[in-house]
């Protein structure tokens, strides 16, 4: 267990550094947003393109991994969504609550954790998990929110809006572009490869700093977490990896490394995506920010336990 903790400790140390810089006034209130924009539009797309451009088709064609991770992700989202609907929540708010419970931080925390545990060759599967989370799950939530906020359901308008949003998403465009490049069989030109390595090399540090800054801003939210926030946190840190493990090990009988990757990605804390969506649609975001804060704080322990069990 000590070895496992030491493996992921540097990752959370960078998050803590970002948190301390914000709370200590070294970085301002807008720093989290600026770091996040740099990661989303430059650093992480460069890393995703670089990984996918050099990957072999056999490394990413892992239908078992896709099914297992998707089952945990969409299963927990559906559980939280329908539970909140039964509590009388509007569909738009219930969709955001579903994201609180099922939206793994695959982009910001998943890449450094997977690389530390499984090595750089695991980043192809981590990219698949990120695309499923950031694009597929996000698209489902957006459709539900758009329909829920309209007095008359207009499917073609909803489809166009979601389609435009996904078409502009750099975390979807970059791995697809990288895969398209890989299919050509052409080597990446040296200057372009240097640029990708320089930008991609900053993705991990800047993403973790951004998360720490965001958590510091969220920690200022007043009020104690209610039962719903605790339920979302439990579903995220325990329910999602448990459901993924049942599918990966018990149903599909995946190879240990592939199954372990799926479970580890499912065990990640809640990412900042639900908060961004809540802010964009002007929905209540206190529960979301509290869930992100709690899951990221507790994930130091839960991820160490998960990694120890996988190993």
From TrEMBL:
List GO terms (cellular component aspect): membrane
Signal peptide stretch: none
Where does the record place it? Membrane
Single biological process term from Gene Ontology? transmembrane transport
Q: Which residues form a coiled coil?
A: none
Kindly state which keywords UniProt assigns to this record, in alphabetical order. Answer: Cell membrane, Membrane, Transmembrane, Transmembrane helix, Transport
Transmembrane as a keyword of this entry, yes or no, is yes
Say where the protein is mainly found.
Answer: membrane
Q: Which residues cross the membrane?
A: 38-57, 64-83, 123-149, 170-189, 195-216, 292-310
Q: How does it sit in the membrane?
A: Multi-pass membrane protein
Looking at the Swiss-Prot or TrEMBL record, what is one Pfam family this protein matches? Mem_trans
- What PANTHER family does the record tag this protein with? AUXIN EFFLUX CARRIER FAMILY PROTEIN, TRANSPORTER AUXIN EFFLUX CARRIER EC FAMILY
What name does UniProt use for this protein? Transporter
């Amino acid at each position: 267990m000590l070895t496992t903790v030491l493996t992921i400790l540097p990752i959370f140390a960078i998050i803590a550094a970002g948190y301390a810089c914000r709370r200590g006034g070294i970085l301002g209130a807008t720093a989290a947003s600026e770091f996040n924009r740099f990661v989303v539009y430059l650093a992480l797309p460069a890393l995703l393109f670089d990984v996918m451009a050099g990957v072999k088709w056999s490394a990413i064609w892992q239908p078992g991994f896709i099914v297992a991770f998707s089952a945990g992700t969409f299963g927990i989202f559906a559980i939280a969504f329908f539970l909140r609907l039964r509590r009388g929540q509007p569909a738009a708010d219930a969709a955001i609550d579903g994201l609180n419970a099922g939206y793994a931080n695959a982009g910001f925390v998943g890449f450094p954790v997977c690389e530390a545990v499984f090595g750089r060759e695991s980043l192809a599967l981590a990219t698949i998990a990120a695309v499923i989370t950031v694009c597929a799950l996000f698209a489902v939530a957006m459709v539900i929110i758009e329909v829920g906020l309209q007095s008359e359901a207009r499917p073609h308008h909803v489809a166009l809006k979601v389609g435009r949003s996904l078409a502009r998403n750099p975390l979807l465009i970059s791995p697809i572009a990288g895969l398209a490049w890989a299919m050509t069989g052409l080597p990446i030109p040296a200057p372009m490869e240097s640029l990708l390595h320089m930008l991609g090399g900053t993705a991990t540090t800047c993403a973790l700093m951004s998360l720490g800054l965001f958590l510091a801003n969220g920690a200022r939210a007043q009020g104690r977490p209610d039962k719903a926030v605790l339920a979302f946190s439990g579903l995220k840190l325990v329910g999602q990896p448990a459901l993924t493990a049942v599918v990966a090990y018990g149903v599909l009988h995946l190879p240990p490394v592939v199954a372990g990757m799926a479970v580890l990605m499912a065990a990640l804390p809640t990412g900042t995506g639900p908060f961004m969506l809540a802010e964009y649609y002007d929905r209540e975001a206190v529960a979301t920010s509290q869930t992100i804060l709690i899951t990221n704080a507790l994930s130091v322990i839960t991820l160490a336990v998960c990694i120890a069990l996988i190993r």
